[in-house]
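tmp note - NERD domain-containing protein
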Amino acid sequence: MDMTSIIFNALQPLCWIIPVVFILFLVRSPWFKGRAGELIVHYRLKLLPAKHYKVLTNVTLPTENGTTQIDHLVVSQYGIFVVETINIKGWIFGGTYQPIWQQALFNRSSVFKNPLHQNEKHIKTLQYLLGVDETAFHSAVVFVGDCTFKTEMPDNVVKSVSAMMHYINTFKTPLFTELQLQQWVASIEGTSFNPDLCN
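out:
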């Protein structure tokens, strides 16, 4: 047996380490955590009654300056819900009118844009596309990571998927007809670069 075969046979039992390290790296990556959070929200939104709620995910619409990407869009008789998903851990500091929010984790801090302001951009784009008054839209932000709000947040900023569903279900006054919903979903799907219809 030559030296190459000896080395190969000695290292062969360790070959499983490379895929395991890759998977661990992937699972810990911000991309994977963000995608996992979106999938959790996606799954729960699919449980809404399809007769009254049309759910679209990953909606990318053109704007004057490029595009805007909406994590989840719920078109319903009770309004149009624009849902931003955030998957981060730690303490969260922010407020409705603050342009920048802060995350603190293990004596480190980082900042991110106010997600409510991001939703405002989404809503303005949808208003222009659909010709619907701003009062018909409901902005919602759901944190799906293990986080704690250290400042008071408005009712539409929640830290669990269950709380997001509760927020959506608080709106029970019909505003639109089934035909309007079908027209709006068709307009969004026709304009979006990559919509995924959940139900």
